[in-house]
Amino acid sequence: MTTTPVVGRATTTAARATDLSKIYGQGETQVVALDRVSVDFRQAEFTAIMGPSGSGKSTLMHCVAGLDTFSSGSVRIGETELGSLKDKQLTKLRRDKIGFIFQAYNLLPTLTALENITLPMDIAGRKPDKQWLETVIRMVGLKDRLGHRPSQLSGGQQQRVAVARALASKPDIIFGDEPTGNLDSRSGAEVLGFLRNSVRELGQTVVMVTHDPVAAAYADRVVFLADGRIVDEMYRPTSDAVLDFMKQFDAKGRTS
Ligand SMILES: Nc1ncnc2c1ncn2[C@@H]1O[C@H](COP(=O)(O)OP(=O)(O)OP(=O)(O)O)[C@@H](O)[C@H]1O
Ligand SMILES: [Mg+2]
């Protein structure tokens, strides 16, 4: 399916970074991890963030997701400026509006798959939308594993629990830092397929950091970072086109 403009409905920005900089350390040891990055993540769009190791991908994601502070610039989730929030409000915003999928699945070992999936909502005191929960569980194919604990699940199944957990509360935006990095290619393809379906069919917004051109090809758009700056972007990426583009970084070598 190609993206066609939706007539009569403005494309809404789910998250936006403006002139975002993040500097670690001081003096000699100072590292500019992000150098005045401006980027929009539109609603119902699947964006991949790529770039060499150390280019600032995780830092960008963590700053936009409200998991890390930044040195200057601004970040908006929906209409909310993160810089204007107190710690408590930020925690609440993260809980209510943002879903996370990390490479380490971050599942609680003592809880079942289902309990892990609904945990963020339980903590927030929110009742899961039952029908939605069933849809998500069906989509990730965990129906007959719901009573299992993480240790009784394969890596791919654990990652699917993490995906379901991120989707279950219908967050405005889901961030994933190499969400398929630990998976074999088949499990990885499944998880990426769910993410793409959640964008196409459910209007979910997804931002994913990846090193893998095949994974990036599931996205609607790839944003390329190098040395803390956005250097290019690509719409409707194919793995070949992404691979080609990444070659220039290898040719130049790393600066750090
Ligand atoms: N806590 C920290 N203290 C000092 N420097 C840091 C810290 N975290 C990250 N950096 C530096 O900031 C830069 C960007 O790091 P970041 O983790 O965002 O890169 P990345 O693109 O996610 O890399 P990778 O692909 O290896 O995960 C790097 O040069 C890194 O060394
Ligand atoms: Mg990283």
Outline of the structure:
The protein has 256 residues and is an alpha/beta fold. Helices cover 35% and strands 25% of the residues.
What would your notes on this structure say?
- Keywords: ATP-binding, Nucleotide-binding, Transport.
- One of its GO terms (molecular function) is ATP binding.
- This is ABC transporter ATP-binding protein.
- This protein is α/β, with parallel strands linked by helices and about 260 residues long.
- It has a single domain, classed as P-loop containing nucleotide triphosphate hydrolases (Rossmann fold), CATH 3.40.50.300.
- The protein is about 35% helix and about 25% strand.
- The chain has eight helices and ten strands.
- The strands form two sheets. The protein has a six-stranded mixed sheet, sandwiched between helices. Strands 2-1-4-5 form a four-stranded antiparallel sheet, covered by helices on one side.
- Helix 3 runs parallel beside helix 5.
- The longest helix has 16 residues, at about 185-200.
- The relative contact order is 0.18.
- The chain binds adenosine-5'-triphosphate and magnesium ion.
- Adenosine-5'-triphosphate binds near residues 25, 51, 53, 55 and 58.
Summarize this structure as a short list of keywords or feature phrases:
single chain, 256 residues, alpha/beta, Rossmann fold, six-stranded mixed β-sheet, four-stranded antiparallel β-sheet, 10 strands, 35% helix, globular, binds adenosine-5'-triphosphate, binds magnesium ion, ATP binding, ABC_transporter-like_ATP-bd, ATP-binding
CATH topology description: Rossmann fold
Secondary structural class: alpha/beta
Report the average pLDDT across residues.
90
Number of helices: 8
Question: Which kinds of small molecule does this entry bind, naming each only once?
Answer: adenosine-5'-triphosphate, magnesium ion
Q: What series of H and E elements makes up the topology? A: EEEHEEHEHHHEHEHEEH
User: What is the level-2 CATH architecture name?
Assistant: 3-Layer(aba) Sandwich
Q: What's the CATH H-level homologous superfamily?
A: P-loop containing nucleotide triphosphate hydrolases
**What does the largest sheet look like?**
6 strands, mixed
- Catalogue the unreliable spans: 5-9
How many DSSP E strands? 10
Q: How much helicity do the residues have?
A: 25-40%
The end-to-end span amounts to 39 Å
